[in-house]
C-alpha cells in the first residue's frame, strides 16, 4: 500500500478512512490498538529525548 500523507493526520480519522477499504471490524480494532500504541510510544520517546537534551544543555 503506497499512500503519501503530506501532513500529520489524527489517528481516529485514519482509522475511519480505512474503515471504507477494510470491511472486517476486528482488524480495524486491532489496527487502532497498534496505531495508538505506536503513537504513545513515539511521544514517550520524543519527550525523553527533548528532556535529556535540555537537561544537558542547562548544565
Kindly describe this structure:
The termini are far apart. 76% of the residues lie in helices and 0% in strands. The longest helix is centred in the last third of the chain and has 34 residues, at 25-58. It has helices at 11-21, 25-58. The protein is an all-alpha fold. The chain has a domain at 22-58. Helix 1 runs antiparallel to helix 2 (25-58). The protein has two helices and no strands.
Please report the number of helical segments: 2
Query: What percent of the residues sit in helical stretches (DSSP H or I)?
Result: over 70%
Mean pLDDT: 65
Query: In terms of structural class, how would the helical and strand content be classed?
Result: mainly alpha
Task: Indicate the low-confidence ranges by residue numbers.
Answer: 48-59
Helix and strand topology:
Blueprint (H helix, E strand, L loop, with lengths): L10 H11 L3 H34 L1
